[in-house]
Amino acid sequence: MKYSKNFYTIKSNESIFDSIVDEKNKIGYYKLPFQNCEDIKSFASTVKQKHIAVIGIGGSSLGTYAIYDFLKRTHNFEKKLHFFETTDPIDINDRIKKLDLDDTLFIVISKSGTTIETVSLFKYLHTKTTINALNCVIISESDSKLTQYAHANQMETFEIPKDVGGRFSVFSSVGLLPLACIGVNIEELLHACRDVYSSFFNKKEEYSELMEKARFIIENKHRFNINVIFSYSSALEGFNKWYIQLWGESLGKINVNHTRQAFTPIGLIGPVDQHSFLQLIAEGKRDKTVTFIKVLSREDSTEIPEVPLIGLEELNYLDKLSFSELITQQVDATIQAIDEMNDVPYDVISIQKINAFSIAKLMFRYQLLTSIVGKFVRINTYDQPGVESGKIILKNKLKN
Amino acid sequence: MKYSKNFYTIKSNESIFDSIVDEKNKIGYYKLPFQNCEDIKSFASTVKQKHIAVIGIGGSSLGTYAIYDFLKRTHNFEKKLHFFETTDPIDINDRIKKLDLDDTLFIVISKSGTTIETVSLFKYLHTKTTINALNCVIISESDSKLTQYAHANQMETFEIPKDVGGRFSVFSSVGLLPLACIGVNIEELLHACRDVYSSFFNKKEEYSELMEKARFIIENKHRFNINVIFSYSSALEGFNKWYIQLWGESLGKINVNHTRQAFTPIGLIGPVDQHSFLQLIAEGKRDKTVTFIKVLSREDSTEIPEVPLIGLEELNYLDKLSFSELITQQVDATIQAIDEMNDVPYDVISIQKINAFSIAKLMFRYQLLTSIVGKFVRINTYDQPGVESGKIILKNKLKN
Predict the structure, then answer these.
(1) Given CB atoms, is A27 within the 8 Å cutoff of chain B?
(2) Residue A331: burial class (beta carbons within 10 Å; 0-12, 13-18, 19+)
(3) Rounded to whole angstroms, how far apart are CA atoms A381 and B3?
């Protein structure tokens, strides 16, 4: 067999690293940790409204939601974030009911500026309340039609840089503005990103860990074509959804050798999904890698009390155990069970605490991992050509 | 090659049908459509509390949640259902805040009666309010420790038959009781199940459709090891979760020939996931079958208004379109795009209306499909031995 020039060989870690170093000057998301966000903070400090409604779909909302979902239960935010993304009318009207329309700031987000779902929702909201420069702000590319609309209406605008794709935009104004409005410390988010960035580019811990993980995933991609994240905290449900978009949309591509790639993301929540998906991991076909995410400190001392329940005495060993300890024991027991199977590849990510720093670190790390895997398999990680045909068909249907 | 007696050959549809006919007298869920549920209805009619809290995990809550989630936005239920399943303390306390504890009926559900999560939560709730026969009812196997507790406290009990597994129990008291309490027409649910049942066992429409689908899935299981459901309604998010448990836990098994099976469920919601997972379906490796679920009539006339937005005139073709029509066009456009790819196997399930009958029909159908696929691949569809080792490890950790 004669190898053609294009024949697929897995490059060395060194050469992949070099191409990431090269890419970091071309792809916008690498620069976001170093941005100046004074304008965002100063706008946020003037917001009086109690409700913040994000009108945006996919990359325009998933990242913000991931961070909000992670923090909302433990941080007493004074304002409430709402997300409008679907075109399902039942869902739309249900969500509008939860707003006080006179006390809502609308943040309309669309990179292209002409996303059908976002514009439809935005138009509909005009029938519910007066929308003007006092209660609406626009986030879009600087020369989009939506930004044009904003200028025509003297609305405040924030820019999504052209070289920052939707699913890599959470640390641009897309995520930072709504999060700053409800009081999230956005400097802390960027600080965490910079830590990951410098550890990776200085070839410290993040470099070795991410390279090792990426290499395993790609060397075994045909055997383990499914990548499961098993998050042991309900607060990570939003993160799981964000991960699914990041991984699926970035890596679901045809590569330079015209080969379809094989990485399917799945997001699970523990311990609930021990009662659902775990059986499949344990006894199903060996086609999955599993990444456990565990929270080390919950700072919550809620305990299972010593309540004698007649008949249920055999469970008295639970008495006086804290729920934090119980869930930690649950993740450890599941990891041990998987470990003892010997043929399910897994790793464990530990999160120190439920705070802005932890979630930003986790997310920036996953963006880097996605970029590295993309380089290894020689795809364009940052486009999404596969969804264009559906969009064109829809447009034609609607115009006729 | 000499074929051993056990060598795996795919049996004929006829012989699979015969074994299902045989199984329906042994496995309890087939009998549920024909049960008498007067006791459930009569109990439900006496419930005064406004909040109904289901304490149960996995099969004890996912089915009920699926039906509630499907109906809650369009049906004005006078009572509210709440679900307590995780041991994550932050989540538990967050959910408790949403109850009026003096106006809550607790329904504690555990088939075995000794589920760690359920008993822990139940104990904890005792520190929040007085729990007694006036505000608590127990659903469990008739001779479980939990039922024993109920008897000792003169609490009302409902039975989960021993031959009905958790993930097949939604049409037993597990699902019917909480749903009846909030006013769902449970006779309508059972009526829909009976329709599917008789169509299948009389070899009408459901027989041919389910057999064809099951056969395709198993004949191509190594090629298409992932089964995606793409539901075009936010109201089907609960159904997706229920499907994931049903499919994953039932079919993730080692079969009679000691071969690990290969069926991984994924649940998507449209149009949102067009902006997330669709790219992977469109351009990723051909390892997925896709089932679209579309709602034919939404009985909702919410329209995109004729609001002139300066700059965005190119989207004026959306004006006066109803959101119901838009989402229908979106699913049709996505189906057409997938169809034109020619190598992604898909099918379409249509739901007439958002009502109790439709969701029960869909769910009973999926239970049958799961049973049929299980027969084809020669596994025990109804057990879950793979999660036992983790449970034992946990118990040992906690006792020491």
Answers:
(1) no
(2) buried
(3) 47
Residue A249 a catalytic site member: yes
Look at A264 and B249 and tell me if their CB atoms are within 8 Å. Answer: no
Helices and strands, counts by H and E, chain A = 14, 9
Q: Within 10 A of B153 (CB to CB), how many other CB atoms are there?
A: 15
Per the CB < 8 A criterion, the answer to whether A67 and A83 are in contact is: no
In the DSSP assignment, the letter for residue B319 is: T
pTM: 0.97
ipTM metric: 0.96
3-state secondary structure A55-69: ECCHHHCHHHHHHHH
Q: What is the pLDDT of residues B103-128, one digit of tens each?
A: 999 999 999 999 999 999 999 999 99
Using only the alpha carbons of chain B, give its radius of gyration. Answer: 23
User: What's the DSSP call for residue A98?
Assistant: T
What per-residue confidence (pLDDT) applies to A384? Answer: 95
Q: Is B97 a catalytic residue?
A: no
> CB A252 to CB B283 under 8 A?
yes
Instruction: Give the integer Cα–Cα distance in Å for A12 and A215.
Output: 9
Q: Dump strand ranges (E) for B35-181.
A: 51-55, 80-84, 104-109, 136-140, 156-159
What domains appear along chain A, each with residue ranges and CATH number? Answer: 22-184 (3.40.50.10490), 189-376 (3.40.50.10490)
Compute the distance between CA of residue B5 and CA of residue B58 in angstroms, rounded to an integer: 37
Helix (H) or strand (E) holding A307: none
A140: phi then psi, degrees, rounded to nearest 5: -165, 175
Pairs from B125-130 (Cβ < 8 Å, separation ≥ 24): B125/B55, B125/B84, B125/B96, B126/A305, B126/A307, B127/A305, B127/A307, B128/B96, B128/B101, B129/B101, B129/B102, B129/B104
Q: State the Cα–Cα distance between residues A277 and B244, nearest whole angstrom.
A: 7
pLDDT at A10 (0 to 100): 85
**Tokens standing for residue A276:** 């659902």
Q: Is A206 a catalytic residue?
A: no
Mind listing the pLDDT tens digit for each residue in B294-346?
A: 999 888 999 999 999 999 999 999 999 999 999 999 999 999 999 999 999 99
Contact in structure between A264 and B284 (CB atoms under 8 Å): yes
Asked if B123 and A260 come within 8 Å (Cβ–Cβ), the reply is no
